[in-house]
Model the fold of this input.
Amino acid sequence: MNMRITLPALLIAACLPGIAWSQHEHHGAPVVAAPAAAAPGARPASSAWTRQPLLLPGKNPRGERATANLRQQGIAASSLTVFAPEGAEDRRKVDYPAGAEGARIAPGTAKIGNYHWVVAREESAEAVKVASTAWYFGNPGDSPKELLKVVKHELEIVPEPLPREHGRYRESEKWRFLVRLNGAPLAGQPLLLETEFGSRAAFLTDAAGIATVLFPRDFRPVAKGEGDHGGHGRQLAKFVLSTEKEADGRRYLTAFNLTYAEDADRNKSLGWGAAFGLLGMLAATPLLRRRQNGSQGNNHA
Done:
């Protein structure tokens, strides 16, 4: 049976493996649950994409970089505590009052930058709830490596390490996080990842208290000019890691939230695949024509 395969059909077939890979790669992580109502990569209609406590950027005056405004979500705390990577002892840990609009925080000193660690705490006799995040101030400053070693509260999720300056967590990347209780690593402790695109995945810490977290490939491909940056830069989305533990008669819940970016090669693999497929088809066209001509010649012999 003769089959006539057109060039567009061959190009589509050549691109299909790349499309399937981009849809299913994030399934390498054990997905716990995902809302079925939202389309993959679509942003939720409201900010309630998680029940975990969060610290989120608030409104900051245009051009203001010396301070930052952070607001709480899912946690009631009267203040935010900022831990600096360096500076005078009395500026290494500073409490800032938090109101309905959040709290305006500042680096250890005006000249100190790099990552600072921010904590909100809600406490009762039965339970302790903590939200934490890392905030980057633009001035030069010490590496956060030593800052991350400092015990800041009972149950902690500690990045191992934080992304470098101008770096990001990204889709499809694996990053390590330490879970510790009162400064000691917790082995076999579940760690839940949630993203604002609806992905859910659970990970277990190893004997050293380390969980290797795979960020899902769940961004929706956007056309040029779309997205949060008007076509400039890459999209960012929120994520939160959380864990719970009962100890000494109290229930501890701690969460760490930040943002992650789309895979830098998300569009390259499909684009280059299509380009190479097109070149391959064009290169094969003369050979196909020769075969067709040869077949026709044989038929008329």
The longest strand covers residues 236-247. The CA atoms of residues 227 and 235 lie 6 Å apart. The longest helix spans residues 266-299. The chain has one domain: 9-269.
